[in-house]
Amino acid sequence: MTFVADKFDNSGTAQVKADDGTVVSLLVGKGVAGRETPKGKTDVFGVVVKSGGDWKLVAARFLPANRKAVQELATKATCMTCHNPDARVVAGTPLLGPPYREVAAKYRNDPDAASKLIAQMKTGGQGKWGQVPMPPLAAVVQPDDMQKLADWILGYRWDTILAE
Ligand code: HEC
Question: Which of 79, 82, 84, 126 is the most buried (most CB within 10 A)?
């Protein structure tokens, strides 16, 4: 899907266009009003509800359509050994790093979020989520890939914004 408008208004709906040109109207939370819509091809996840006799999609998550490729990048760069997009525990094993959904929620109103995430990848960090440190990973991630990873992680901010 691609968003028809550059910004969300306060109507509680947003128009997205499918690849075949069909325009679909989504129900969106109040938190989106005034924000820029996601750029480029975006997948929309949500819950289908019946409203006024019609089936409508209540949007709950927007993620970039290229996220599979970026997640492969994250696996190659070892990120996924300590992080999961949604969970703190995977297959019974607690992960050392915070879920990306929570990182994105923390930075949902911060215009400098991407550069802060990139700084964390380059130099590592400690004390923002607990006492366990994250190692610096500049040696295993290319600068271009850091930007892609940051954009993907921050895509999860919509989970929180749409719920507002
Ligand atoms: C060895 C485990 C480990 C690996 C590998 C790892 N992280 Fe982390 N990550 C952590 C921990 C622990 C924290 C919390 C650090 C803190 O409290 O400041 C963290 C925090 C973060 C944060 C939050 C920063 C903030 O400002 O709140 C981001 C973003 C992040 N990691 C991204 C990545 C990415 C992208 C990769 C792969 C390139 C990666 N991490 C690899 C353990 C890891």
Answer: 79
